[in-house]
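ok so I'm stuck.
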Amino acid sequence: MLSLKDLSYLTALDELRHFGKAAAACYVSQPTLSGQLKKLEHQLGVTLIERGSKKVIFTHVGLEIAQRAKAMVLQAHEMEELARASKAPLTGRLKLAIIPSLAPYLMAKTGSTVNMLLPELNIELHELETHELLRQLRNGDIDIGILVLPQARAGLRSLSLWQEKLWLGVGHNHEWAQKTQVTRAELAGADLILLKEGHCLADQAQQLCQIKSKSQAFRGASLETLRYMVSAGNGATLVPQLSMEAWIAHGEDNIAYIPITEPKQARELGFLARSGSAYWPCVEALHKAMVGILPDVSEGTQNVPLVL
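replied:
not stuck anymore, here's the structure
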């Protein structure tokens, strides 16, 4: 009988492609991991990993078995969580990942309410860019994600949370500082300071109307970096609603926020979990706790399309 523990060692090695890192991720020594994988090869009667190379190279059959092992390990984990959740669905640890352009602002606005309404749910918060969030969600490394909802994907289930309006933020000396609105057409080709590639907000800015970055040599690592640059008079950037509200509340008075109209722009935020996840009651509970706190969105807002 194959051991799920040995299969988890195999999936960790497939994921990390490094014996030391895989052993650390599994909380065992490297000799223990190597020995168990050799035992697995003996049980199966095939070679899973090429020997004698500095790199971790899987054989063809090794890759096939690793992919099946990943599904088996994940299903076993979900069975354990399903049993636990059936007894106490809103208790225990929950690994929640949120994209960086949303995480600090959403949790600052809703965190106290979530803690009050769900006191026995121990939320372990992770801040992950979209591509990494999706990868870890599929692999079972996180339980739930909150992000700009991607297109429907097999094996994942979503629940819309909120339409977050997007604003143009400019310094008071910017040529557009006195504008009361800016259209999507006016933004076409505009020079903006953007987040670095990999952040979905940067992708949205470019998809909005072919917006380009003011500086190809500089891309901000966070919205807070862009905030300080715009506040100091260095251009303009795209600002989500919750970020704008947080900056204003903290006394940021060197930035003018201009609504984007014709059509109004927003991004659809929501929850994402695996289709068979035992954590779906947590998704619904978090949704209920958060949705009543978030501001109303005026009619006529259009989602920014995001291709993932």
